[in-house]
Specification:
- The chain is α/β, with parallel strands linked by helices.
- It is 40% helix and 17% strand.
- The chain has 15 helices and 14 strands.
- The chain is globular, with a radius of gyration of 21 Å.
Length: 403
């Protein structure tokens, strides 16, 4: 009889959020291996709450069950909290109707969804695996959503510790996240580090064959790109200040692609200083990402100093797959800092060092073609080997057979 696996997260296919894409990848791979896979997610799109998905759908062998929730959006923490609350109520009611699964894999959006998955396994049986995409209540405190020592903080802390304690395995995305979890009192045996991967469809597209560059008038431009979530965890002030200082460089543009709470900062900064060198585009469809990411000449990956180990910079893998240079805007003591040090690839600058960032921009802009080619080969090799979907999902599958 085929093993039954339940996947828990607020987002799943066709949402473009990072956790949705990685959980969908895992679900599809498990289904292809003969597992009977079901996913529970929200009917409403994570980034645009007005977009509503079908209640039930099958995608590449995965049964998707979606539950109703409110559509207040991210205007305030209160509105976002109401959406989370309504989703969790619907989610819990749906779970009460489900049978036992052999394995349940829970992520961290919203923060307590894995706690519910663990309780589900305790009540109905099955093995629970916690896939930590971030760490709470640490993140909630850093973001200012929760005050340390408050009642809600204590609830989050109890939920997270119980989840860790009762999980068969905890999957952390990097060694800094693993250390943070282990410092809460959990053993090396329980915590396994498995990074997430470069999506298979992302590849390097030459500028002269890239329709994205032509469509957005980027030909003959040096494109500095920030693609992904504009969140509090990823400061962009240094990048914006660099754009302001380089506003008279006619062949340099700063392209922001994505969404998130910091989007108004970008738009307001552009308008305040009349910066024609800043361009904003919304999230791109997954099948188009290889074109958008390849359109860059230099990628920016920002990591807030206080968020190392709490969140993981998953955008780095798609960047590596395109073979484009990148600069870490943040501390060297981090997962991307490890990549820079161990694999001798990429650049780094501290937050606030605008001149340092500009210096790197000019250095990359002036790299000889041969150096860019060699850098691209090394970057793509990393993506296709060390951080490939096949390699890392194979590690994930060992969790179903490990003692």
């Amino acid at each position: 009889m085929r093993k039954r696996i339940l996947l828990l997260n607020q987002t799943f296919y066709p949402d473009q959020a990072a956790t949705s894409q990685y959980l969908t990848d895992l679900g599809v791979e498990l289904a292809s291996k003969g597992y009977n896979v079901t996913a529970i997610s929200d009917r409403r799109c994570y980034d645009d709450r007005n977009v509503v998905h079908p209640r039930r759908e099958y995608y590449k062998g995965v049964e998707i069950i979606r539950v109703d929730s409110t559509a207040f959006g991210k205007k305030t923490k209160f509105h976002r909290g109401l959406d989370y609350l309504s989703f969790n109520i619907s989610f819990l009611l749906k779970m009460l109707t489900l049978p036992k699964f052999d394995y349940v894999i829970g992520l961290t959006t919203p923060p307590w969804i894995s706690f519910f998955g663990m309780i589900f396994c305790k009540l109905k049986g099955g093995i629970f695996i916690h896939w930590a995409m971030d760490v709470n209540p640490d993140e909630a405190v850093r973001l200012g959503w929760v005050r340390q020592g408050s009642l809600f903080y204590e609830l989050l802390d109890v939920w997270s510790r119980l989840t860790y304690k009762k999980s068969f395995k905890i999957v952390a995305l990097d060694r800094y996240m693993a250390d943070l979890i282990k410092n809460k009192g959990f053993s090396d045996h329980k915590v396994k580090v498995i990074p997430i991967w470069a999506h298979d469809e992302i590849e390097s597209v030459p500028h002269d064959k890239n329709p994205f560059r032509k469509e957005h008038n980027l030909d003959n431009k040096f494109v500095i790109m920030y693609s992904g979530n504009f969140s509090i965890c990823h400061p962009i002030d240094t990048l914006l200040e660099a754009a302001k200082k380089l506003k008279n460089e006619q062949d340099i543009v700063f392209l922001f692609i994505g969404g998130g709470v910091r989007l108004p900062e970008i738009i307001n900064f552009k308008e305040k200083y009349h910066l024609k060198n800043i361009i904003y585009l919304p999230y791109q469809k997954r099948e188009q990402i290889k074109y958008s990411l390849s359109a860059a000449d230099l990628h920016i990956v920002s990591m807030g100093n206080d968020y190392v180990g709490i969140v993981h910079p998953c955008k780095i893998y798609g960047i590596l797959a395109t073979g484009r240079p990148f600069v870490l805007l943040g501390p060297m003591k981090s997962h991307i800092g490890d990549i820079i040090t161990q694999d001798n690839i990429g650049y780094q600058v501290e937050h606030g060092d605008v001149e340092g960032l500009i210096s790197i921009i000019k250095k990359v802009k002036g790299l000889p073609i041969a150096d860019k080619h060699n850098l691209a080969l090394e970057s793509i090799y990393l993506a296709k080997n060390k951080f490939s979907r096949q390699t890392l999902i194979a590690e994930f599958l060992t969790l179903f057979t490990s003692p």
